[in-house]
Amino acid sequence: MELLALRTGQLLNQSELGRDARLSQPTIHRYVSLLETSHLLERLPAYAPDRTTRLLKSPKVYWTDPGLASFLAGLHDETALKHAREVGAFFEGLVLHHLRVQASLLAPRGRLSFWRPRRGGEVDFVLEHGRRLLAIEVKLSETPRYGDTEDLRAFLDLHPHAAAGVLVHTGREVRRLDDRIVAVPWDLLAE
Q: Which pLDDT score, from 0 to 100, does residue 110 have?
């Protein structure tokens, strides 16, 4: 479980995880499935316009409770968490937790995924509601900048029908960073 906690927000490679845990890939598959069935772990699928392609791409893995993930990773106090290299991934997991709630309130229910093109870069979350898309990037920063929107702009250029891009940050102010991108404090998602 500790190895999975340390991989929060990363692509799930069960063979690699099995090597690190010294367990077979089928055993890892069963453990991951059990954690997912018990709603402790979530596989976030990759976004692709073609739904068949989505099924073939590797998912990212998140613990449904980012506090549990940080505890399992051995981060038992605030100081350790602030200085951990995984803190950004745990923050991303916290934002996913709130997005999951927001998506469930939509009728029909919204779908969450992530986008990673072949050329590199990544958009942390794509919220799909019917044929509408909202791209969401998460930054553990109090002062979001235009440079933080590069991957959002790439997604919006490739998917011009997308509604907008949102950069979720830890600061206090809502700011427009581009014509179609707005920076929003994370705690607005929680309200």
A: 95
Is residue 127 within 8 Å of residue 144, measured between CB atoms? no
pLDDT (tens digit, 9 = 90+) per residue, 95-153? 999 999 999 999 999 999 999 988 888 999 999 998 899 999 999 999 999 999 999 99
Backbone angles phi, psi at 13, to 5 degrees: -120, 100
Tell me how far apart the alpha carbons of residues 175 and 155 are, in angstroms, rounded to a whole number. 20
154, 184, 186 from 173: Cα distances, Å: 24, 7, 10
C-beta separation of 106 from 129 below 8 A? yes
Sorted by sequence, the CB contacts under 8 Å of residue 131 that are 6+ apart come out as 161
Number of domains the chain is built from: 1
Distance between CA atoms of residues 187 and 142, nearest Å: 12
Instruction: Please report which residue ranges of 14-59 form alpha helices under DSSP H.
Output: 14-21, 25-37, 51-56
Please give the residue range of the domain that contains residue 90: 2-188
For residue 159, give the amino acid letter: H
Q: What is the mean pLDDT of residues 68-90?
A: 93
Query: Comparing C-alpha atoms, which of 105, 114, 113, 77 is closest to residue 189?
Result: 105
Mode of pairing for the β-strands spanning 10-11 and 60-63: antiparallel
Q: What is the pTM of this model?
A: 0.90
Which helix or strand (DSSP H or E) is residue 24 part of? none
